[in-house]
């Protein structure tokens, strides 16, 4: 029937069935329809839409999905029980290609303790359930639950029975995530070589991730002759989850040199589909998750960023565009280097020259040491602050403040004024007042404080503060800004920045007055 040596691998998505089985991931009908539309657009060959006997809601969603889906085959799950199979048939009957997926456990532990059935009874149920399903639909999948812990001779008898009864797909699941790649590959090779009618069905892998090997095992199964892969978006599923569709598909695409298997998935929709599933299930995607994690195409360390700027192949084995991510992101942080910082400044519209770059880079590293995430807004605030204050007469050199419930608050401030450093300790009605009193003592002036305003550049308790100060000197108002993760340092910078403008205006006025004489 099917050539097991061909290179087409069918993608069977079970996000809506096994994915939904993980605690907390259940979806409403509307949410399931949304996911079904996304899976159909993605190009899955078969989508398992639910377990129709489980509830009226599950029946209705499988049935609605069957009517709605345009391209993929729609499958429903059923135990080896007539009522399950008939209910499933009723639910999938409007699908373009309806499939009944029936299963029963075949391992000694499951047969003895869970089913409490003798192996011969299990064989009978395989024959009757598959035959019943075949009376309803042409596409019937049979699964040997706990297949990887099943005794080999018995597994072969079960598979032969299922195919004889009309199964078109044979799934050997690693239900408890126990197998290893070599073992799973050998299992498929063994079954396919020993079962006389094996060539009449497509073999399928279905792996769980209890030991973190679900994707590797799935691919090994394909190397052993399986041509259907059962998987879920974001790897959601029972316990540690199922094999992740996006990882399997990108492994096949990226390593086509050693994994020459074709499928129908539009990989550029992977990110969008992952986000949709994450949103409807409220299951967050781990940051460092392969392919669809938010760090999958993000680089923070300077050496990697430098490499990426020179040639993306240095640190990326697939392009972000190929999975629907718009671009690689170079995240600025304490591990970043000058090349990436310079590039970031260029992107933000700054050209500071070598000296300016060096000063801004030093301040950036200092900020990154203190702040968990450095956002573009932080860099803009920092560079603007540097540009505004770098060539000023007065600069803030050091500040330490005593604040708290005990009065009065005090500030010890060191300013550099015309190249000379001076320190003064002042008290005040609060730490900001103490700082401003210290500035007044170090750089005496008549200007009056008109406005003092603080706002956070980004979110979080480690956000940079951006402080605005306005000083009025006669009719003239001078405004200054200061940015720093420490609000008090930002306040000192802002006041000094405004004061520099007051002095600059006065100096200009004097020059103009002298010139007018
Ligand atoms: C490996 C997998 O992912 S298998 C799929 C697991 N998914 C689910 O279970 C989700 C949907 N399940 C449900 O809604 C319910 O379990 C139902 C509706 C299927 C059954 O509910 P209940 O009738 O209340 O039975 P319950 O779940 O308590 O026990 C399961 C029964 O099915 C039997 N059973 C389990 N698997 C099979 C099977 N493949 N074929 C036949 N009988 C089976 C069990 O032995 C047990 O039988 P018992 O009642 O005679 O002891
Ligand atoms: C029903 C089967 C395919 C299953 O989900 C499993 O064995 O994990």
Write up what this structure looks like:
With 517 residues, this protein is an alpha/beta fold. It has three domains: 10-281, Alpha-Beta Barrel (TIM Barrel), CATH 3.20.20; 298-386, no CATH class; 393-516, Double Stranded RNA Binding Domain (2-Layer Sandwich), CATH 3.30.160.270. Helices cover 42% and strands 20% of the residues. It has 16 helices and 16 strands. It has helices at 29-42, 56-68, 82-92, 108-115, 119-136, 152-165, 181-194, 214-223, 245-254, 270-281, 302-310, 338-347, 353-370, 376-389, 431-442, 487-516, and strands at 10-13, 46-50, 73-79, 98-105, 139-145, 169-174, 202-207, 228-231, 298-299, 329-330, 394-402, 409-417, 420-428, 448-456, 465-473, 476-484. The strands form four sheets. It has an eight-stranded parallel β-barrel, surrounded by seven helices. α2 links the parallel β2 and β3 (73-79). α1 runs antiparallel to α10, α3 (82-92) packs parallel to α5 (119-136) and α5 runs parallel beside α6 (152-165). It is elongated and about 100 Å long. The N and C termini lie far apart (106 Å). The mean pLDDT is 94. 3-methyl-2-oxobutanoic acid is lined by residues 18, 103, 143, 145, 171, 173, 175, 206, 208. It comes from Rhodoblastus sphagnicola. Its cofactor is Mn(2+). Pfam families: HCS_D2, HMGL-like, LeuA_dimer.
